[in-house]
Specification:
It is built from six helices and nine strands, in the order βαβαβαβαβαββαββ. With 210 residues, it is an alpha/beta fold. It has two domains: 105 residues, Formyl transferase, N-terminal domain (Rossmann fold, 3-Layer(aba) Sandwich); 88 residues, Formyl transferase, N-terminal domain (Rossmann fold), CATH 3.40.50.170. Strands 3-2-1-4-5-6-7 form a seven-stranded mixed beta sheet, sandwiched between helices. It starts with a strand and ends in a 6-residue tail after the last strand.
């Protein structure tokens, strides 16, 4: 049995993906220990979710810092103080700088509500709906210095119905986000994810192989 994934989660809002992690951990579907949940905004529902699960929380208001780098340095200090080794961005609405990404190199994971590289950036669900695609979905990926440009770990597809509203699509994508993010973190926890040298591709191996 591998050691539990030492996970820190960054949030800015309701925390539904955080809840998916917490539920999966409680049900032993995800071999992880959520060490701390950090929010850049006070009084968001994600903090209440963490507190109910007896997970330590901390608010680090980005408005208190003169630069993104100073804010990121404080994030790094807090996560390291809690023994975090991997970081999941669960609706964290800040662009991270090299100050943060270098500290957790290749160990920061995000989910985006489209099939990247299609529809990066904000409100990807509306972008897909307005473009008229018939299939969209979500992507779990490593975070790099670009916007939604890091190597892809896995994706889930979601069909777009002719009568779907933007909100219909948003909700169906969110349901798949909860599945995909947990699956990706469990692959990491099992040691089955390997970034191929010199490539953007991610290798997924069977336990004990590769």
């Amino acid at each position: 049995m591998t050691e539990p994934l030492a996970l820190g989660v960054l949030v800015s809002g309701s925390g539904s993906n955080l809840q998916a992690f917490l539920d999966a951990i409680a049900q032993t579907r995800l071999n992880a220990n959520c060490k701390v949940v950090v929010s850049n905004r006070p009084d968001v529902h994600a903090l209440a979710r963490a507190e109910r699960a007896l997970v330590p929380t901390q608010v680090i208001d980005h408005k208190r810092f003169k630069s993104r780098e100073e804010f990121d340095a404080e994030l790094v200090h807090t996560l390291r103080a809690h023994g975090v080794e991997w970081v999941a961005l669960a609706g964290f609405m800040r662009v991270l700088t090299p100050t943060f990404l270098d500290a957790f190199a290749d160990r920061v994971v995000n989910i985006h509500p489209s099939l990247l590289p299609a529809f990066p950036g904000v409100d990807a669900q509306a972008q897909a709906w307005e473009y008229g695609v018939r299939v969209t979905g979500c992507t779990v990926h490593f975070v790099d210095i670009g916007v939604d440009s890091g190597p892809i770990i896995l994706q889930k597809t979601v069909p777009v119905g002719a009568l779907d509203t933007k909100e219909d699509l948003r909700q169906r994508i969110l349901e798949q986000e909860h599945v995909a993010f947990v699956e990706a973190l469990e692959l990491i926890a099992q040691g089955r994810i390997a970034r191929q040298p010199g490539s953007r591709r991610i290798a997924v191996t069977e336990p004990g192989k590769g």
